[in-house]
Structure formats: structure tokens, C-alpha cells
Design goal:
Elements: H1 2-9, E1 14-18, H2 27-40, E2 43-47, H3 59-79, E3 85-89, E4 92-93, H4 99-120, E5 124-128, E6 136-137, H5 140-150, E7 156-157, H6 158-164, H7 171-178, H8 182-186, E8 188-192, E9 194-198, E10 201-206, H9 210-223, E11 227-231, H10 236-249
Parallel strand pairs: 1-2, 2-3, 3-5, 7-8, 8-11
Antiparallel strand pairs: 4-6, 9-10
Helix pairs in contact: 2-3, 3-4, 4-5, 9-10
């Protein structure tokens, strides 16, 4: 609760609840947090655990991965306090599969989880995230196609896109591709930060450069998209406040 009030004091209006090392919050706790966030005008998204591989051919790994995501969706439902919550997750790895084979396995898992979400009447929407390593399933084209074919959302991590493409990112192309997703036409859950990379992609997150913040915000304003940007740098609050100041200076 103190964290929510600190976020409000900083002038921020969105937070991502991190279940990255496990879903360790009860539904009752989630409801309490969600109700308080709603009172404060703070929107909530959820990040599911890291230990997920929807591209696995091992039934036990696949089943455990889906359970971790669905547990996150259940908590997200209560955290949302009546509003739909985006549940973000890294979808998986190619492993020994060809990208097309991996895509079909991930797609099937998404459809199965969406069916479970509807049956439980949870107010949550799956949002696989663009990944930062070339060995991971989840480039922008794959996720936009997944969104078109299943109706899931796409969480765009701009730092990950840079890491996958040797530091290069074409914002015009990114937002044009996102227009193909029905969910992205409504809202885009997103991440940003500084990033260090190698030829294999993402290495570690860094503090966000002001120039990178300005460039992204210019394109957000130019493309007129509805977007929530969660900063994942080593100083997320500091970088988020910096982002808000820059945004206000551009108004």
C-alpha cells in the first residue's frame, strides 16, 4: 500500500505488479491493493513469472507455464478492481523447433488459456511481450500475428526490440505493425529502459537515456496511441518521473 501512495506522490499513474519470481499474493490481498489503486487513480498491469516456456514440447513444462500465467490472471482480475488488467509474460524459447513450429505451439497454449479465462470470468487479457534475446520466441512480427489470430494483446518492450536488432529500432515501422492488432488499436501495454546487448540480444537493463525517452515520446504523440509505459531500468521510479517531466515539456 505504501508503494501505491509513493507512486501517487511522484505524480505517476501506472504500476506493474511483478510476480516474476512467483505468484505470492492471495486474492484477498490483490483485491485490497486493487481497490486502493482505483481510489488513487493508478492503473495496474501484471507481469507473470519468468519461468515460462509456452514453446516447450515437454507437457509438464507447458502445463506449469500455463498455470503460472493463469494464476497471474486470477490475481490480476482482483487487482483490477473491475477494470481489465493486462497480464504480461515472456512467451518462451524456440529450442530445437523451427520458428513456425514454435509459433503453433504457443498459439495453441494462448487459445487454451483464453478459454480458461472466459470460463472463470476473469477480467484479464493476455499480453505476450516482445523478447530481447534472439533465442526467445517473441519478435514483433510473431506477436502481431498472434494478436491478429487469437485476439491477445501485445506488450511492446522497446528496449528488447533494440537488443534484438543490434540497437536499431524503427518506431514508424513498429507502430505501423501494431495497427494490425485490434487490441493495440485500443491500448498498448509497453516497457522501456536503457539496454545493453550482445550478438545474442539482451544482456542487461540500464538507466534510460533522456534522448531515448524523447524519441519514443515523439513517436507516441505523432502516432496518437493509447499507451502505458512501464520503466524497467535499475531506477524505475526515477526514470518514470523523468519521463513524465519530458512529456509535460513536450505538451
Amino acid at each position: 500500500m505504501e508503494g501505491l501512495h509513493r507512486i501517487k506522490q511522484l505524480g505517476l499513474d501506472a504500476v506493474e505488479v511483478e510476480f516474476v519470481y512467483g505468484v505470492r499474493m492471495t486474492n484477498a490481498q490483490a483485491k485490497k491493493v486493487g481497490d486502493e489503486a482505483k481510489k488513487l487513480g493508478i492503473s495496474i498491469s501484471v507481469h507473470a513469472p519468468y519461468y515460462i516456456n509456452l514453446g516447450s514440447t515437454d507437457r509438464k513444462i507447458l502445463s506449469a507455464s500455463k498455470k503460472r500465467i493463469l494464476d497471474s490472471c486470477e490475481r490480476g482480475h482482483w487487482l483490477g478492481a473491475g477494470e481489465r488488467v493486462y497480464v504480461v509474460f515472456h512467451p518462451g524459447y524456440y529450442g530445437k523447433l523451427a520458428p513456425g513450429q514454435c509459433y503453433e505451439i504457443v498459439k495453441r497454449a494462448i487459445v487454451e488459456m483464453q478459454k480458461a479465462i472466459r470460463q472463470k470470468k476473469w477480467n484479464a487479457i493476455l499480453a505476450p511481450e516482445t523478447t530481447g534475446k534472439v533465442a526467445q520466441f517473441g519478435n514483433l512480427d510473431e506477436l502481431v500475428r498472434l494478436s491478429k489470430e487469437t485476439g491477445c494483446a501485445v506488450c511492446v518492450d522497446f528496449a528488447h526490440l533494440k537488443a534484438r536488432h543490434n540497437g536499431k529500432i524503427d518506431y514508424r515501422e513498429v507502430f505501423e505493425k501494431l495497427k494490425q492488432s485490434k487490441q493495440a488499436q485500443k491500448h498498448i501495454p509497453a516497457h522501456m529502459s536503457g539496454i545493453e546487448w550482445t550478438e545474442r540480444g539482451e544482456k542487461r537493463h540500464l538507466v534510460t537515456k533522456e534522448s531515448d525517452i524523447r524519441e519514443l515520446l515523439r513517436w507516441v504523440k505523432k502516432c496518437r496511441v493509447d499507451i502505458n509505459i512501464i520503466n524497467e531500468s535499475p531506477d524505475p521510479c526515477g526514470d518514470s518521473v523523468k519521463t513524465m517531466k519530458i512529456l509535460k515539456s513536450m505538451s
